[in-house]
Design a protein that fits this description.
The complex is a heterodimer. The model of chain A has no long low-confidence stretch (mean pLDDT 97). Chain A is globular. In chain A, 26% of the residues lie in helices and 25% in strands. The longest helix of chain A is centred in the middle third of the chain and has 9 residues. Chain A has three helices and five strands, in the order βαβααβββ. In chain A, a hairpin with a 2-residue loop joins strand 3 and strand 4. Chain B has four helices and eight strands, in the order E-H-E-E-H-E-E-E-H-E-E-H. In chain B, the strands form two sheets. In chain B, strands 1-4-6-2 form a four-stranded mixed β-sheet, with helices on both faces. In chain B, a hairpin with a 4-residue loop joins strand 7 and strand 8. In chain B, helix 2 runs antiparallel to helix 3 and helix 3 crosses helix 4. Classes of the chains: A alpha+beta, B alpha+beta. At the A-B interface, strand 5 of A face strand 3, helix 2, helix 3 and strand 7 of B.
Chain lengths: 84, 149
């Protein structure tokens, strides 16, 4: 099982701040995960529609589209950061 | 204790006290830089809320601090980032650095701010007088500033 976390407007668009999901074996990368998640609800689809505005951290390290997610425990999905 | 320490908090900080603590007992430091980022009341903004990724934020801030310490040996410092709802005029972020010579103190402070803006998991939501809210969009020039290091 993987804990999927959402932050900022991604959280608002999805409508929940996180969910615990069993990822299917066909989902092996960040890009594949986003494709799969986008099918879960209209909110997910809206949040993930523009991948250029989406950033991901796998087990608390920033990740790219090709980063593996197999075996990951915590995957966070969020907009580009705006702190400082 | 790391050469540059990172802290995350909701409360206001005292930049002068942080710098004094950093310099206490030191006679080898010839330069100190003290930077504070503040909430600006642009376009009728009444509050700025900093959301962050609790499990990751402080570790990432310390990794940024350690990266600066590795690039500029001899630099010491403190970085503090606030989260929660902040009002115009309040502080958001503190970067204090000190070094034997000013070039390293300035460079490390600038690097720390550029990386905090682009590599720490914070998100700003603006709140306006008419009740509307808006998430701040990331800016390309911040990415450019971070990439120059």
């Amino acid at each position: 099982m993987a804990e999927i976390l959402y932050f900022a407007w991604v959280r608002e668009a999805v409508g929940i701040d996180g969910e615990t999901l069993a990822l299917p074996a066909t989902v092996s990368t960040v890009a594949g995960l986003l494709d799969w998640l986008a099918q879960r609800s209209p909110g997910h689809a809206a949040a993930l529609a523009d991948r250029s505005r989406i950033r991901v951290a796998v087990d608390q390290a920033f990740a790219g589209p090709d980063t593996p997610v197999t075996g990951a425990r915590e995957i966070a999905i969020f907009p580009p950061v705006t702190g400082g | 204790m790391p050469a540059i320490g990172a802290r995350l908090q909701t409360d206001e900080f005292d930049g002068a006290a942080e710098q004094a603590a950093l310099l206490a007992g030191r006679r080898d430091l010839g330069a100190a830089v003290n930077f504070t980022g503040l909430v600006r009341a642009d376009d009728g903004l009444v509050a700025l809320t900093l959301e962050h990724y609790p499990a990751m934020t402080l570790g990432q801030m310390q990794a940024i601090a350690d990266a600066a310490a590795a690039r500029w040996p001899g630099v010491v410092g403190t970085i503090i980032h606030r989260h929660g709802r902040l009002l115009p005029g309040e502080s958001i972020v503190l970067v204090v650095t000190a070094a034997p010579h000013r070039a390293d103190a300035f460079a490390a402070a600038s690097f720390l701010m550029d990386w905090l803006k682009t590599k720490a998991p914070f998100w700003k939501r603006e709140e306006f007088a008419d009740g509307t809210t808006r998430w701040v969009e990331a800016r390309a020039h911040d990415d450019d500033a971070a990439a120059r290091w």
